[in-house]
Write a structure and sequence with these properties.
homodimer, about 350 residues
Chain lengths: ~350, ~350
């Protein structure tokens, strides 16, 4: 077996988040849906982008956020995703490089611009997101680097990729390569909208390819088209080795064979921006796994890293997660072996 | 710190179980309570003992059963408890020696006979137990061997000892010595009757001395005088590092800081004799702990060892638990680190 170089390689949409504060009138005048994520095409994106003052541009993308969190925890990571060699693409590359993450996917030199998510924050602190995938949707099987996948203990894939035909083939390629080298596949279902659009395909991949699944309560229910949370937990049990299901302030549940592990959430007083909570929970959980912690401790670490990300704007950590987690675990009196 | 020689030393009542089949009339004629454990004095015990045909005499005692299970799993164990140097006392010593357990407590050479529990099995398969503690109640602080406690990673104590003044002092001595050497104390609350008789004292010991607590659902509720199981779990949480609560066919729950781990029970078709289920659950759980498994796996192993013991008469294992557990864990596809 090949030595591992990476703890985790993630495959996902390379996206830059463009944050802007707007009034409610801005959304109403343009008939834009509020409080959710909407995929938009190039002209639509251009129109919104032209009208706003971009307050902050920060690298994002679900699977990219997860490896950024892992890198901040001290894990060795790589990212596979597609940008254009434009201004936002260079920003994305700079951020991911600064985080110490290997990112070798060749950028587009022509065609679609780098993917972006325009995040409009209204005075009521709600976030309405308009995502133009752009270059990200050009990710193809050729971009799935066999060497990197073979050298990573875990290949983490975001479900959003299933929305695109090209990227969908890339997902299957990544899964097959990971298993070819005896590695594990982790998968995030990403969003209820993504599940509803791709349920059969997603269930098929989960059942046949996925070892470690990430979802939240609404998503796991949507996956099995049920309102019964416990039923959904029982249905996911035989399909994967480990399912980590987040429940906001109720913490998370880990389903692993005959065990169900309920872990309390961190107590936080002020949620500033919940974007990235799921992505960073996955960072903490996977960090626990690759460092050989128990599943309960993995979930605890996921809770700590998720709590950090929602205490500020943006989905990339603003402190050293490694130090934060070490401090918190000592505070909780965790013995190293548990 | 002193090297450990033992994984677990247990301290408890040294008891021989005397099994006998009787008709319902036997109980009625003597006005004996059915289906529960009753403490009896020497004349009462003598009277019952004289009237029965002792079908089988097998070593028992809660904490002794637990180390017998641990030894069968491959752990290094010692036992501290008091027998008389009589026929039943020699049987007890022979059994515990054959199991490979160190047992150096000097036997009584005069006074009370070896403790025994006369187990009357009626045709409806119910068990009515009449326990004469005898020599067991003479366990004193002098019997708590500092060297053995200092060399054991975990000192396991049965709650039944709190029923006797002498033994109660011995319990405190064992706890203090364990902590003096940086070891851990595991404690079983033993029975609802034992809790009701000693609630304040027991809670005091649990809070100040115990790291790992064993109880079943009825017992943990009795401990906090509540009918609300979840409330009882929340109340035990701050008092100990780990609480392992068994729930018969519903498996067990482990409470550990912010984690609650629910583990399914083994599926068994035929429960022959439930005596020793709690004792052997503790064997499996502690074996998991001393071999560095996750708490979920500890509970799983506890379920496997408990299932073995209730599939036959008597509270000592009839197969190599080590082989059984290894086979079952492979069957469940457990990865060694989980």
């Amino acid at each position: 077996m090949v030595e591992t170089v990476y703890d985790v390689v993630s495959v996902g949409n390379a996206i830059v988040d463009v944050l802007s504060k707007v009034g409610d009138a801005f959304l109403k005048e343009r008939d834009l849906p509020k409080g959710m994520m909407t995929l938009v095409n190039a002209p639509e994106a251009g129109k919104i982008y032209a009208d706003i003052i971009a307050e902050r541009e920060v690298s994002g993308g679900s699977a990219a956020n997860t490896v950024a969190g892992l890198a901040s925890l001290g894990a060795d990571c790589a990212f596979i995703g597609k940008v254009h060699d434009d201004e936002l693409g260079q920003l994305f590359q700079r951020d991911i490089g600064a985080a110490g993450i290997d990112f070798f996917t060749p950028p587009l030199l022509a065609g679609e611009a780098t993917g972006r998510s325009v995040v409009l924050v209204t005075p009521d602190a709600q976030r309405s997101m308009f995502t133009y995938l752009g270059a990200a949707r050009r990710l193809s099987v050729e971009d799935i680097d066999e060497k990197i996948i073979s050298e990573a203990r875990i290949t983490f894939i975001e479900g959003y990729l299933l929305d695109e035909e090209n990227a969908h083939s890339a997902v299957l390629k990544a899964c097959e390569l990971a298993h070819k080298y005896g590695r594990e596949v982790a998968f995030s279902v990403s969003a209820v909208s993504c599940i509803e659009k791709n349920r059969e395909l997603m269930l098929d991949i989960i059942k046949n390819q996925v070892n470690i699944l990430f979802a939240n309560e609404a998503e796991i229910k949507a996956l099995f088209d049920t309102d019964d949370f416990n039923k959904a937990l029982d249905l996911i049990k035989p399909l994967v080795d480990i399912a980590a299901v987040t429940r906001d302030r109720h913490g998370s549940v880990i389903v692993h064979g005959r065990e169900k592990i309920f872990v309390e959430a961190e107590q936080i007083t002020d949620v500033v921006d919940s974007t990235g909570a799921g992505d960073l929970y996955a960072s903490g959980f996977l960090y626990g796994l690759v460092t050989g912690r128990s599943l309960g401790t993995c979930a605890l670490i996921g809770g700590i890293t998720a709590a950090e990300i929602i205490s500020h704007y943006g989905a990339r950590p603003e402190v050293s997660l490694r130090g934060l987690v070490r401090k918190k675990l000592i505070e909780y009196g965790k013995r190293p072996s548990l």
